[in-house]
Amino acid sequence: MRDLAAGMRYLVRGQRWVAGHGRWWGFGMIPALIALVLYGAALTVLALFAGDLAAWATPFADGWGAPWQGLLRGLFTALLVAGGLLLSVLTFTAVTLLIGDPFYESLSERVEESEGHCPSAPDRSLWREIWIALRDSVHVLLRAAPFGIALFVLGFLPFVGQTVVPAVGFCVSGFFLAVELTSVAMQRRDIPVRERLRLLGGRKALAVGFGTPVVLLFLIPFAAVFLMPGAVAGATLLVRDLALGESDPGAADGPGAEVPVGAGVPPVAGASAAGGGFGPPPAPFTPGPGA
């Protein structure tokens, strides 16, 4: 439960950071707005043709009488639209990050600089960075796909499919959304995608606590545009503490140090004369076994 609460606090801290830096908030909304227009058009088309897709996918029900044909195809249509919404939430971040790679890289760097230290990014061209981000996003999507398919099938179960399955689906989406949101700060540290999954997989409650509220909030119309910059800022703060704890758990001990993940206590301003009063620079990341 502490990790769940800690994940939520990182999201709140990120939103507070952008609220205090209005220029960066507006700067970070530009790619989210572009992605929202694209996704809005795609979901509108899906909603308009979901009934036809349901009829095409259930030809065996053509001879069924009322109300069974309507119930089956209505359920299929609802699941299709719900699946489209969940897929859009899961991929919205990846697409927005791809569109706005320079925007969010600059935003994430500014967050780290305000916290006292920003690791040097690998010496790569912009197109190389975009290619790596696209490749990593596809990898994460492929890892998430089996969960999505299983939950879609389980959605047909009476009662469980309308109660337990959606709740589990939001948590699964939240975890993978956290993986996507942390990719900006992780990529700056040159942490490969498999290692990112291992790091967050070892703290699933933390990732779910951070990502699931974002999933739920992104379902509110236009909320994603306003919340995306703060979500990237919060993910950056999460990565700073997560990478620090992974590379040197003892580095967070003592006065003036960064707060370990899950502690839930914001750093105290003025704790260090250097770096803006937010503790020492994060220790270099050391890949774990199997990286």
From TrEMBL:
It is a multi-pass membrane protein. It is found in: Membrane. It comes from Streptomyces catenulae. Keywords: Amino-acid biosynthesis, Cell inner membrane, Cell membrane, Membrane, Sulfate transport, Transmembrane, Transmembrane helix, Transport. InterPro entries: CysZ-like (IPR050480), CysZ/EI24 (IPR059112). Residues 272-291 are annotated as: Disordered. It holds the Pfam family EI24. The chain crosses the membrane at residues 24-51, 71-100, 140-161, 167-186, 206-228. The keyword Nucleotide-binding does not apply. Residues 279-291 have a biased composition (Pro residues). PANTHER family: SULFATE TRANSPORTER CYSZ. The keyword Transport applies. This is EI24 domain-containing protein.
